[in-house]
Amino acid sequence: MKGSEHGAIIILDVNAQPSQPAANEPIKVTAHIQSPEGIESALVKYGLSDLPLTKSDMINVARVYDCALSLESGT
Fold first, then answer.
1. pLDDT over 90 for what percent of the chain?
2. What is the pTM for the complete model shown?
């Protein structure tokens, strides 16, 4: 996330729907974040694995990607 160089960015909540998607099913990630100086942008980092990720550590996922989040409300 990008905010002010000196501002504290607080992640209040992160959610993904559906919570257990099928293979190749699109998901919607919602994040509630705030900063006294406002939020300029935010990224979600996700990984792809050939094996199920249930109770798996993301460190072991070789294919990790970033995707920009869009601002739907707030400033």
1. 3
2. 0.60
